[in-house]
Design goal:
- The chain is an all-alpha fold.
- The protein has one domain: Up-down Bundle (Glycerol uptake facilitator protein).
- It is built from 10 helices and no strands.
Length: about 240
């Protein structure tokens, strides 16, 4: 395993989840000074959380921070399949750490919050209208937009990832995805971002928590993986076709 990849993806993803889940906690949990700040605050802060994650991980690993990005780059041929496990494992470790830090930081606010659904929403996504088919399609489209744009502006080689766009452009990309496409499912667009904190919600004794909604949990995993792979396939088809013209 490449220690740069491991360290970069762990700490980059940890900061992504700490600040991303952190803003959700601040907006949703009782007696937070940011309570009820709204969707715009959440989407802006998630974009800035990605900015921070890319700044941290970019020089070391290329800042994938997302199994869908890693798989998409492997499908495209920018990353060897033998490297995929170390990226994804590191991303999940980072997600576990970030979600745990959010739990500790907002522990007293979890105690003050009665709504079990709001507590779960700090950690993972849920659909506005529960329909597995359309929820899956939403995650596919949102992740396709993320990975396709990263590839369209990115570079080849081992440095490929979110960092290939630059920290600010990729942050703005995530903001616009959240504002434009996030209203249906909460735009997980990242299996580690959703499943990692969902596992932490299940494992930690969060005060007054409910279940972790495992019946929905496959959608924010499968959808982004399909979206990332589809982005790579279409990118290759379109760009190779254009090169031959």
């Amino acid at each position: 395993m490449d220690p740069k990849v491991v360290i970069g993806e762990i700490f980059g993803t940890m900061m992504l989840i700490l600040l991303g889940d952190g803003v959700v906690a601040g907006v949703l949990l009782a007696k937070s000074k940011a309570q009820n700040a709204g969707w715009v605050v959440i989407t802006l802060a998630w974009g800035l959380a990605v900015f921070v994650g890319v700044v941290v991980a970019g020089p070391l690993s290329g800042a994938h921070l997302n199994p869908a990005v890693t798989i998409g780059l492997a499908v495209k041929g920018d990353l060897g399949w033998d490297k995929v496990p170390e990226y994804i494992i590191s991303q999940f470790i980072g997600a576990f750490l970030g979600a745990t830090l959010v739990s500790i930081h907002y522990w007293k606010h979890f105690q003050e919050t009665d709504d079990k659904g709001l507590k779960l929403a700090v950690f993972c996504t849920a659909p506005a209208i529960r329909n597995p088919t359309f929820n899956l399609i939403s995650e596919i489209i949102g992740t396709f937009a993320l990975v396709f744009v990263v590839m369209a502006f990115g570079t080849n080689g081992s440095a490929s990832g979110l960092a290939s766009l630059g920290a600010l452009p990729v942050a703005l990309l995530v903001v616009v995805i959240g504002m434009s496409l996030g209203g249906t499912t909460g735009y997980a667009i990242n299996p580690a971002r959703d499943l990692g904190p969902r596992i932490i919600h299940a494992v930690l004794p969060i005060p007054g928590k409910g279940d972790s909604d495992w019946s929905y949990s496959w959608i924010p995993v499968v959808g982004p993986v399909i979206g990332g792979a589809l982005a790579a396939v279409i990118y290759l088809a379109v760009w190779k076709g254009m090169a031959g013209m």
